Each structure stands twice: as C-alpha cells, then as structure tokens.
Amino acid sequence: EEISKRSDYNDTIGYPDLKQIQTALNEHEILVTYFPTFKGIGRLCIARDKAVSSFSAVDFPQLSRDVKLLQYALTADYAADENLDSQYPAASAVRVREFLFSGLEQCATAGSHINVALPDEVAGIPLAALLEEIPPSAGERFDLTRAKWLGNIFSFSTTVSARQFVGSRRAIIHRWAQRPYLGIGNPDLSNGLRIPGNRDPLRL
To answer: Helices 90-101 and 60-75, interaxial angle, to 10°?
Structure first.
C-alpha cells in the first residue's frame, strides 16, 4: 500500500509543492530548507503532518568566523589531547545550530531524521558536531562528555534542494523489478579472473 501510494507523484517542474514533499517523507523524517530574506534567513521545516517556518536576522561576519573556527577544530591534525579537545569552540557550535534550526522545535523533534538542504555559508560542517547548548564547565574547560551534541538528538542526511530530495525518492521508489529474480553463477576461475582492459588474468 505504501509503495502504490508513493507512486502517485505528479511530474515536478521547478519547486515541488508541500504535498509532494510530505508524501516523499518517511515517518519520523523531516526536510529542512532555507531561503534568504531582506535581513537574514528564512527556514522551512516540513514533516509528514505539518510545516513550520521561522525567520531571523543574521550577523554574517560572525557566522563566517564561527564556521572557520569549527572547520579548524574538526580538521585539526594533532594527536588526541584532552586539554586541546576541551577548548572546542562551543559558542560557535551553538550559534551555527541556532542559525540552522532556531524556531523549528515544533517540527524538528528529538529522534527525527533530518534531511537538510544546507545554505552555502555552512556547507561542509558536520551537523552532528553542533551543540544544543553550551556544555557544563570542568574548571576552565568544557566537559564535552556531558555536551548535548546534535548527533545524539537527531540523525542527518544532506540534500541539494527539496526538488532533488523528491526526485531522488521518486527514482528509488520506481526501481522495482517487474518480476522476482534470483541469479546464481558457477564461474570457472581455474584460469584466473580476467578484468576488462588487463592483458593478464588475475590469479586467485
């Protein structure tokens, strides 16, 4: 029943409508996408039974600094060091989380799988490494063992756009064999396995 329901997509030209996106979503799955506004950013969170939007002004120079700090912290090539690791840019991780998800709490509930069409400003930042809030302190450092990482609250996938998300779901849904198929092989590998383009067979 679910498969036949999902096959009833209309051909989408341009941006898909709300119903098409909701039909493409699984249970406990949402899509979050973004659009620019005069003062900052607009966010749209779509679940199977609701859609929630939020808007806010954005300090883009601060956002750029936050992204650079996170990129540095997440790609540093030093050996594991408790002191350095505890200096994780937590404030930046919280601000980037607010930039992406502020005001969407009624839609992005704990345990959801979030498909995100990320804005260019934060492309490349692992969303699981963002923070819900500043972690508790341990002396002059953060106690990251008690941090509320987004990766412990949600799971994430990234997509280019809502149109790409719906289109990819259509492609997956329609790749069903018309008849059951079972293939069994019994190759003779006594002379080796020949790979196209190689002159000599690969000996096993």
So the answer is: 120
Task: Supply the mean pLDDT for the chain.
Answer: 81
Buried b (16+ CB within 10 A) or exposed e, 149-177: bbeebbebeebeebbebbbebbeeeeeee
If we measure between CA atoms, which residue out of 143, 118, 141, 142 comes closest to residue 63? Answer: 118
CB 83 within 8 A of CB 141: yes
Residues 150 and 141: their CA atoms lie apart, in Å, by 20
Can you tell me whether residue 61 is helix, strand or coil? Answer: helix
**For residue range 6-42, what is the model confidence (pLDDT) as tens digits?**
333 344 446 788 999 999 899 999 999 999 999 899 9
